[in-house]
Write a structure and sequence with these properties.
By secondary structure, the chain is an alpha/beta fold. It has a 6-stranded mixed β-sheet with strand order 7-9-10-11-8-12.
Length: about 575
């Protein structure tokens, strides 16, 4: 009988686990070990340990020391081992079971431990996989490399401002960043409300006789008013924080006037958004007095709609970064920078308007990954004093299937409002626009519904680009399949080439200042790397320096270059996968 033929757990093959043959590490030696060393050793010993009590007892000093360094419990730090062992890949419950050589029931008993690791942000859920799977977070990797723990975020006894700031952070993590799923978002929001009963906003909302999901929606209305100064909230904005199988009746009850919020005059209809035909609601004065006693709502509240699908980057928050281009690319970038200087842009827009020509500018940055497309957009914004509204259209399409068209249109509506209200026209940056700029498909294939949705998104983009009264920059890695209708609408098309040997030499020395001219030129000539790949290697050089003390010489750097060339291949075992 083969193990995978039936959905049952068979007894693991009898063999002596590694931890029984390993001599426990003394406390004296543990004091000299880095966190990475401890984790590396713990991963080796935990493999096939069956999560047996004997393992925890025999190696209690190692487990306790590692747990202290990470500010986790002994069980939590041991449960991290499968994720550290294969840190670049998704790990499902079956992978965890196989790593420890234990039964599914044993893993099920540790469900709360996994949840705590998610809550502490050491691992994250992948919401797009068919089966529940998890992955070590980038924050955890960075913390381990620096021998630090992730901070324990206090969510209890907060001030009113701290409370709202934390809820805003949860919204961003659940929305644009995708760091937590909807279930975790609801759990943490309710925890936030329950832990802050000293605040009238938390006490009043938790006392309502409505489902927990509805309490989260009400808090969202409050956040929109207090933080974003948005009075009128379309119900469609709430869909991204709604769990798939929870409270489907909320919009129906609201729209038919049967929800307690309507009956108790806490929320009232505020008309419709004419462009998107969405039902719009707002908090009443009664609700403001009941829930928002700790907050001052100014009389000049801005009714401009905001969204959770874009990222506003202030120009003064962008750090200067040296960029290196070929001579051809540098000339085009200089032209764009000159165009985007405010005095120059205003003069050009006035001339275009007098000539009855469109005043908006659509720019396409295309080229292979790592050639500096996004960073160039950021640096242009910084140098010309323009904020950026950054959007990843592809992630919105994946996440918001079924409502994508409305959300995409809403993004452009929001940008248009920002243009009107900003002293200096911001830049709309659409990152990784490959999928939506491709040739439109003929409906009727394997998935006509999906094809219809894709075409609808593209039509919205084409219309928006035609009428844009601002500056849009789209970045893409692929142009061979660019739809001609999109191509016509880009006034500036800038190709980002792989850097020349001279440019690569400068890039190498900018990231690794200790490199002399000869070694930098040697690396630039031998490896056809993009700036992003060179930065990857520079980061590894720094990690090795922090771990081992010595500054890597040219031989070690060339070894890292060779590893970069085969990045993506999967090894059977990597002690600390994110380090080597």
């Amino acid at each position: 009988m083969k193990r995978d033929e039936y959905d049952i757990d068979l007894e693991p093959i009898s063999r002596t686990p590694k931890y029984l043959n390993a001599t426990p590490i003394s406390k004296t030696r543990l004091k000299k070990m880095s966190l990475l060393d401890k984790l590396d050793t713990l991963v080796e010993l935990a493999n096939d340990c069956m999560l047996d009590d004997k393992f925890f007892t025999r190696h209690k000093d190692l487990i306790a020391s590692t747990a202290a360094d990470t500010e986790l419990t002994p069980e939590e730090v041991v449960m991290l081992c499968p994720f550290i062992s294969d840190s670049e890949c998704l790990v499902n419950t079956n992978d965890i079971k196989n790593f420890f050589s234990c039964s599914s029931i044993t893993i099920m008993r540790r469900a709360s431990t996994l949840k705590n690791l998610i809550h502490r942000r050491y691992i994250r859920i992948n919401r797009y996989s068919n089966t529940p799977s998890y992955q070590l977070t980038e924050k955890a990797k960075e913390a381990f490399c620096n021998s630090k723990s992730l901070p324990i975020v206090n969510t209890a006894n907060l001030t009113a401002d701290e409370f709202m700031k934390h809820f805003t952070t949860l919204l961003r993590e659940a929305g644009r960043k995708g760091q937590i799923d909807e279930g975790e978002f609801h759990y943490e929001t309710m925890e936030l409300l329950n832990d802050n009963q000293q605040l009238s906003i938390a006490k009043s909302i938790t006392s309502l006789n409505v489902p927990d999901a509805d309490k989260v929606y009400l808090l969202y209305f409050c956040k929109r008013l207090v933080v974003d100064h948005q009075v009128r909230v379309p119900l469609g904005q709430l869909e991204f924080i709604a769990e798939d199988d929870i409270n489907d009746e909320f919009p129906i009850l609201m729209n038919t006037g049967r929800h307690p919020y309507i009956k108790e005059e806490l929320i009232v209809p505020a008309g419709q958004d004419n462009l998107m035909s969405r039902d719009v609601y707002q908090l009443t004065e009664k609700a403001r007095k009941l829930f928002l006693k700790e907050y001052q709502i100014t009389e000049d509240v801005d009714d401009m709609e905001d969204d959770d699908h874009s990222n506003i980057i202030k120009c003064d928050s962008i750090k200067p970064k040296s960029m290196f281009y070929s001579a051809e690319d540098q000339g085009q970038i200089n032209t764009l920078q000159h165009l985007l200087e405010d005095e120059q842009l205003q003069a050009i827009r006035e001339r275009l308007e007098k000539a009855n020509l469109r005043k908006g500018f659509n720019c396409l940055f295309y080229g292979t990954p790592g050639t500096g497309k996004t960073e160039t957009a950021l640096q242009l914004a910084r140098m010309t004093g323009r904020d950026i509204m950054q959007v990843d259209i592809s992630s919105i399409r994946d996440k918001w299937y079924g409502e994508t068209e409305k959300i995409v249109r809403g993004i452009f509506d929001n940008y248009a409002q920002r243009v009107k209200k900003s002293k200096r026209i911001p830049i709309l940056l659409i990152n990784e626009a490959d999928a939506v700029l491709s040739v439109r498909t003929t409906v009727g294939g394997n998935n006509p519904t999906l094809e219809k949705t894709e075409n609808a998104i593209q039509n919205i983009l084409l219309e928006a680009m035609e009428n844009i009264d601002g500056i849009m920059i789209a970045t893409t890695n692929l142009t061979c399949n660019l739809d001609s209708a999109f191509e016509r609408r880009f006034l500036y098309k800038v190709e980002f080439h792989q850097p020349s040997i001279e440019a690569k030499t400068s890039i190498w020395q900018s990231f690794i200042p200790d490199l002399n001219d000869s070694d930098a030129t040697k690396l630039a000539s031998a490896y056809d790397f993009s700036g992003g790949q060179i930065e990857n290697i520079a980061r590894k050089v720094m990690v090795d320096h922090l771990l081992f003390g010595d500054k890597p010489g040219i031989v070690n750097i060339e070894k890292l270059c060779s590893q970069e060339l085969i990045a993506g291949r999967h090894n059977n075992h990597k002690p600390i996968g994110f380090n080597h």
